[in-house]
Amino acid sequence: MKEYKLSQVAKMLNVHRDTILYWEENKMIPKPRRNPKNNYRTYNEKEIKLISDIRGVKIS
């Protein structure tokens, strides 16, 4: 399954990356997994769909 970085997910959801960080910090979405090599947040398509459903934003 393909993995996406925070900036890619923000673009897909048409929100600023800081918005996703805000949602995460305020427990409005589940915490993402981290890439063990670089500690970047990673999301798969199922997780992106879940965020979209929880926050009521469309995936573009």
Would you mind describing this structure in some detail?
This is Zinc-responsive transcriptional regulator. InterPro entries: DNA-bd_dom_put_sf, MerR-type_HTH_dom. There is one protein chain. With 60 residues, the chain is an alpha+beta fold. Strands 1-3-2 form a three-stranded antiparallel sheet. The protein starts with a strand and ends in a 5-residue tail after the last helix. The model has no long low-confidence stretch (mean pLDDT 97).
Task: Describe the secondary structure blueprint for this structure.
Layout: E1 4-5, H1 6-13, H2 17-25, E2 33-34, E3 41-43, H3 45-55
Antiparallel strand pairs: 1-3, 2-3
Pfam families: MerR_1
Organism: Virgibacillus massiliensis
Protein name: Zinc-responsive transcriptional regulator
Q: Quick recap of the structure?
A:
By secondary structure, this protein is an alpha+beta fold. It has one domain (4-55): Orthogonal Bundle (Multidrug-efflux Transporter Regulator, Chain: A, Domain 2). It has helices at 6-13, 17-25, 45-55, and strands at 4-5, 33-34, 41-43.
Index terms:
60 residues, Multidrug-efflux Transporter Regulator, Chain: A, Domain 2, three-stranded antiparallel β-sheet, 3 helices
Taken as a percent bin, the fraction of beta residues is 5-15%
Query: What value does the Rg take, in angstroms?
Result: 11 Å
User: Which class in CATH terms?
Assistant: Mainly Alpha
Strand order of the largest sheet: 1-3-2
Instruction: For the record, give the distance between the C-alpha atoms at the N and C termini, rounded to a whole number.
Output: 19 Å
Number of domains: 1
The number of helical runs is: 3
In the predicted model, the low-confidence regions spanning at least 5 consecutive residues are: none
Mean pLDDT across every amino acid position:
97
Q: Return the string of H and E elements.
A: EHHEEH
The number of strands is 3
* Main pleated-sheet profile: 3 strands, antiparallel
CATH domain fold name: Multidrug-efflux Transporter Regulator, Chain: A, Domain 2
Alpha-beta classification: alpha+beta
Question: What's the CATH architecture?
Answer: Orthogonal Bundle
Task: Choose one word for the global shape.
Answer: globular
Residue share in helix:
40-55%
InterPro entries: DNA-bd_dom_put_sf (IPR009061), MerR-type_HTH_dom (IPR000551)
Protein name: Zinc-responsive transcriptional regulator
Domain HTH merR-type: 3-60
Organism: Virgibacillus massiliensis
